[in-house]
Amino acid sequence: MTFKALLATKSEGQVSASIVDLQEQDLMPGDVTVRVEYSTVNYKDALAISGRAEVIRQFPLIAGIDFAGVVEASQHPGIAVGDRVLANGRGLSQTHHGGFAQKARVNGDWLVKIPEVFSTQDAMAIGTAGYTAMLSVLALEHGGITPARGDVLVTGANGGVGSIAIAILSGLGYRVVASTGRIDEHEYLTGLGAAQIIDRRTLSEKGAPIAPEKWAGAVDSVGSHTLANVLAQTQYRGVVTACGLAQGLDLPGSVLPFILRNVTLAGIDSVNAPREARLQAWSRLASDLDLGKLARTTQVVGLAEVPAVAGRIFEGKVRGRVVVDVNA
Question: Is the pTM of this model over 0.85?
Fold first, then answer.
């Protein structure tokens, strides 16, 4: 039996991705085989299949850093045939075949059982972006940032991390300030729970090394000048989480926010996070994420549409989350 997959190849330095038919023997080693139902397109996926960044370390490789589906075969303790499972990061779409396929075979340690409240489609509407957003919220809480401390800024608000971070934080009682380059998305962002919307241009240019205090915490997926300005405007003993580089991977800022205001910059790694952190994040998503808000962030596409979605991500034309029905 064959299955369909979006296979990334590289020729003369150029990366391309196309739908191919593969067989189970084409899968890589692992002790669990999953019948994939859904995947999702993240910014990292767009980088991978476009070749704009060296995400994929070996070719050819099935792309996709996420998947959700049903276990078909398992030799892993605690994971049984019929279990609904998901995977985020690890080596997917880097050194191991990923989730843009109808089948996946991985190490069972990479898998998390999908909480009962979520369907497999919900799990991928969350995906790495939503899981990263929850890790960011947990880091804010760990740093003592409660709703009573003041506003929390979310940059890249229309993106996947930003959209779900707004939904989670507002549901927990935080007053959320959303930074976006698409002010016309006001209704979408307020529907997710944003109390205030600011133009990203107020943060994206070179700014002062230290500036008036505005927010108690922030979730940043942009990096570069934006992150530097966010830090400069964070309140005393505030916490800023960093999980993305949409504007750039540089940090052209100052040590003054750290020295004068005791600001904490918390890095968020979704790829290699330990299993305990993953389980905590997914447990909290199950209790703290409004499914109605999640639905408002989501659109569904077929496997063949993924490359076009990647292009729209770079053009800033994708809002929220894009779920991939690998069987469509």
Answer: yes
